[in-house]
Amino acid sequence: MSVPRPGDRYPEVISRSIEDRDAFWLDAAESVSWETRPTRTIDERSASEWRWFPDGRLNVCYNALDRHVEAGRGAEAALIYDSAMTGTRASISYEQLRDHVARFAGVLHDAGVVAGDRVLIYLPMTPEAVIAMLACARIGAIHSVVFGGFAANELAVRIADAKPRVIVTSSGGLEPNRVVEYLPLVQRALEIAGGPESGVETVIVRDRDAVPGSAADYADEQGIAWRDWAELEDRATPADPVPVRSEDPLYILYTSGTTGSPKGVVRDSGGYAVGLGWAMRNIYDFGPGDTIFTASDVGWVVGHSFIVYGPLLAGGTTVLYEGKPVGTPDPGAFWRILSSYGAKMLSTAPTALRAIRREDPELVELAKYDLSSLRAVYLAGERMDPETWHWINDGLGVPVVDHWWQTETGWMICANPLGIETLPSKAGSTSVPMPGFDVRIVDSKGEDITAPGVEGNIAIRLPLAPGALLGIWGSEQRFVDSYLSAFPGYYATGDAGHYDEDGYLFVMGRTDDVINVAGHRLSTGSLEEVLTQHPAVAECAVIGVHDELKGQRAAGFVTLKHGEEVVREELAAELVRMVREHIGPVAAFRDVTIVERLPKTRSGKILRKTMRQIVDGEEYRVPATIEDPTVIDALIEALGDTVSAPPTQAVSVPR
Ligand code: COA
Ligand code: AMP
């Protein structure tokens, strides 16, 4: 490593994690309750296959709930539910949560779910989401949570890939401008996935007063049993935790890659419990008696790690918030929650802060609340712009820490480890690497060029830290192709950046076609697949352009088939609707530009980077390999006619 390590205690911790790796992680494993304590740290089976704590056995749900109850802390709050959408506020103790989870685990068991089976969870931000996830973990089933903002098609892709035996859902979610009915979406997704051929046997529906639709409306359609959560729960016997091998999957979480088909990131049980547990103590400085408010969604990795598993493994209290940072009802929503529940930490995405800043730049709302319990704010999901960082850092007067990680890694690759020591934060930097993540800068040939100020691909030496992905569900080869083959011996993060002279890492952006819209990771490839389905569209390119609020937004450039005549606004509205129906509202796709031709190299590669630079008004250099330089001038001219379609309201889903 040719960059310095800042701080007094951090360098010692990181050195030990590298030089005495086994002892370091076996020590960390002491914080977990094992059914069989591991004697070995890691089994490195091949360049692409390693397993943490290979001889350990444990149950993650037991670690998240039962052991805290057994330690006499059953009456302490595990989960606080706060819905700005319905006004509901509830506190659920560890003992109550354990009982709910055990009973729902019994429901899953009665539905035939056994260890290793997949259960797909499609639930809004209500306690049932947490209960269903932990109930799967309790019986060794593998959950796969799908974010509510995805459309039926995306749900179907995940059903077809994960092949769940059971789907757990509810009548729906509540967005500020509409009610999102889930059941027609689930029904449509099942149709697309092949009905009973998909392997789904039962759909369990939690009836939600605020949203129409119940299991009874769909009873046994398509040869699949639709059942009511409450009725099944009444009949179920609570299930005990089932110990599993450390390497057994706890969950599959789908994320966007460069292609249209999402990748099912496979998370293990033991490595995750140890790695995430380490992060809670040493990065977040979080433990029993502490409360964390993570403003995200259980459909994302942030929700898995820092709404559900992290806080509960650590024995603290987690806040589950159904609402937005602004508009539900005002930009003081986050401050209200932090103050009402005495939260020590806020973890959120920069977009949320930009949304608050736009509505309340002077932080007038903040002054209404007592935030004396707040110790730190952690931000992730997208690049934090220095301006917003300064604004919130000055406004709150507590450390505002930008930390970097991915669905794949499960916890922070880089952070400021407040539980070890508070390093000075730097605007625009995600601070320093965490144990288990040996972060290097490599050139396009995979040569290590790590040195202060040198920009390149950010790669991590293998094996990855405990808790990081073990593979891609259903395809060993895809794991190798997606992450391990670009730079042999390294995991390719897909991000580019550099270290500075103090050893701080700056993550500057993706090197692939993944874009980040409001902290939501999307593949431009999957958007392009949708646009090309339009009968008038010949070719298209989707790029991520700068957006003041969401960091990036997707902009579509289309060429028309020969002889096609369209009304620009109509075409744009149709394309927006198609993206909404195929991918979902979360894509927030609005901008369409019709061009004569797309700028390409002579070998046919679309010049996306140049296009992005042009749209963002940055300096750009047209590569010498361009097929026809006049296309650039035509593109610039066409930008004046970009249609920014208004948001479509309800999505019609055929029943
Ligand atoms: N279910 C159904 N639809 C959803 C949804 C969900 N769980 N979450 C979002 N959507 C819909 C929204 O209703 C919106 O639909 P619309 O086009 O009909 O208005 C669309 O998806 C885009 O949503 P969003 O990106 O949230 O934009 P917004 O304009 O509604 O809100 C912010 C802007 C900044 C308030 C919002 O993006 C936000 O809270 N961001 C925080 C980011 C975050 O937590 N990211 C998690 C990763 S760490
Ligand atoms: P996801 O898997 O959805 O969490 O997205 C991971 C990607 O989001 C990373 O590869 C980065 O491109 C981006 N990202 C996450 N956190 C940060 C951060 N703190 N700074 C810059 N980019 C980030």
TrEMBL record:
Annotated GO MF terms: propionate-CoA ligase activity
Alphabetized InterPro entries for the sequence: ACAS_N, AMP-bd_C, AMP-bd_C_sf, AMP-binding_CS, AMP-dep_synth/lig_dom, ANL_N_sf
Cited Pfam families: ACAS_N, AMP-binding, AMP-binding_C
Domain AMP-binding enzyme C-terminal: 527-605
Domain Acetyl-coenzyme A synthetase N-terminal: 10-64
Domain AMP-dependent synthetase/ligase stretches: 75-463
Family: Belongs to the ATP-dependent AMP-binding enzyme family.
Protein name: AMP-binding protein
Organism: Leucobacter ruminantium
